[in-house]
Specification:
By secondary structure, the chain is an alpha/beta fold. It is about 25% helix and about 25% strand. The chain is globular. Bound molecules: fe (ii) ion (FE2). The site of fe (ii) ion (FE2) has 6 residues, from loops.
């Protein structure tokens, strides 16, 4: 699939069809080969959103190259942002050389500090890897490998209302102690839910729209492009 074209269609759809957007979250695997040229091209595309745009790395990214290319304004790579009575935290779950995710001590300590410093703010946590199994055997081998350490922290902070990830290329929703766990479709191809091995779904590129309300509730919906001609090489056994 020509992923640049599908991304452009997603950006056009979001800017045309959504009500005013306060900010955009880009949850990892931004550039497949983690090249400087790739990040530079992505930056140009993201400016078309016309919103503050916050990025975090996935397993295909080089976190240093990503940070170098995408730190600034309106595109940035912060650890956390505060907006109205919400905190949004962006974690780096990249584990070099692995498709699995891992939160190192620095990330966990910063998470703990941010939650302790803002107990009165409703909180949305974003990271690339899924933190709970999605019942897809091959994808669940690439889960966050220290989710127990992550949940040991988050379970003690009831201000956390949502945890959202990329990585799984599909819509996913579950609840953990009242916290909404969300996965988002990819801006390119989708993986078939609950598949045992690698399998591409027929769904078109998409994104997730979130409304964070002042009482801490989250309204969310997943949007797939209505008119996108899929041009996937379906004979591919991987990507
Ligand atoms: Fe990924």
């Amino acid at each position: 699939m020509r992923t640049l074209v599908s991304l452009q269609h997603v950006i056009t759809d979001a800017t045309k069809n959504l009500p005013s957007i306060d900010l955009t979250l880009v949850t990892g695997d931004l550039v497949h080969d983690a090249s400087t040229a790739g990040y530079s091209l992505l930056k140009k595309q993201l400016t078309h959103l016309g919103t503050p745009t916050y990025c975090l790395p996935g397993n295909h990214d080089d976190p240093k190259a990503l940070k170098k290319a995408l730190s600034g304004n309106p595109i940035d790579t912060p650890f956390s942002i505060q907006k109205k009575n919400w905190s949004i935290i962006l974690l780096d779950s990249n584990l070099p050389g692995s498709t699995k995710g891992h939160l190192d001590k620095t990330q966990l300590d910063k998470l703990q500090d941010c939650l302790s410093n803002h107990p009165d703010r409703h909180t949305l946590i974003c990271l690339h890897h899924h933190t709970t199994p999605v019942k897809s055997r091959w994808l669940d081998t690439m889960i966050l490998d220290n989710a127990d350490e992550f949940f040991t922290i988050t379970d003690h902070h009831p201000q956390i209302k949502g945890i959202t990830c990329g990585h799984i290329h599909q819509s996913f929703e579950a609840k953990r102690n009242g916290t909404l766990l969300m996965g988002s479709p990819s801006t390119c191809f989708q993986f078939t839910p609950q598949s045992i091995d690698f399998d591409i779904d027929n769904k078109s590129p998409g994104y997730r729209f979130l409304t964070l309300l002042s009482d801490g509730s989250i309204i969310t919906k997943v949007i797939h492009l209505k008119s996108f001609t899929n041009s996937i090489d379906r004979s591919s056994s991987g990507y």
